[in-house]
UniProtKB/TrEMBL annotation:
SUPFAM superfamilies: Ferritin-like (SSF47240). This is tRNA 2-methylthio-N6-isopentenyl adenosine(37) hydroxylase MiaE. PANTHER family: TRNA 2-(METHYLSULFANYL)-N(6)-ISOPENTENYLADENOSINE(37) HYDROXYLASE, TRNA-(MS[2]IO[6]A)-HYDROXYLASE. Transmembrane segments: none annotated. InterPro entries: Ferritin-like, Ferritin-like_SF, tRNA-Hydrxlase_MiaE. It comes from the Bacteria. Pfam families: MiaE (PF06175). GO terms for biological process: tRNA modification. One of its GO terms (molecular function) is tRNA 2-(methylsulfanyl)-N(6)-isopentenyladenosine(37) hydroxylase activity.
Amino acid sequence: MFKLQLPTDPFWVKNVVESNIEEILTDHAYCEQKAATNAITLIIQNPNVPELVQEMAELVKEEMDHFKRVHDIIIKRGYTFGKERKDNYVNELMKFLKKGGGENQRTENMVDRLLLAAMIEARSCERFKVLSEHVTDKELAAFYHELMISEATHYTLFIGLARKYGKGIDVDKRWQEWLDYEGVIIKSYGKSETIHG
């Protein structure tokens, strides 16, 4: 899926998720909030790109709707919405992000930020697929199947925008570099009660 190099082991669902549903839901809610924040950051960094601003404004609404839906499940089940968790996976991905370089590297930085977002959406989609197929809770299985489809469209959006605005940049080559990098760091994950953990 999405050419990700290491699939999530379904045993993650059985051994970690099913005994930590409350933790997973809290972490998931914060992931949705962070996805909205990332879209806002892309607006702030690229106010002169109207289509990007429009697309990200719509995405913020969708991600916050997902946040509310996860939060609704937490409340309905009598769980506690805990404190924000660090997302070490995303923090490691961010180390690979191109930064700086001034005005002449602005486009390259924007494309890289879009590819970072595409990578996070791709892995989230893959995790939601595994969750939907292996969790015994029927409500959550249906919920994660629906969100898997949504995450796939987000991935497509970010890749499409990177290709559209990455004139003169070998976006496919850079995407392969992201895939290679993610393929290394993901080996440390899949063992904790977080969406990316």
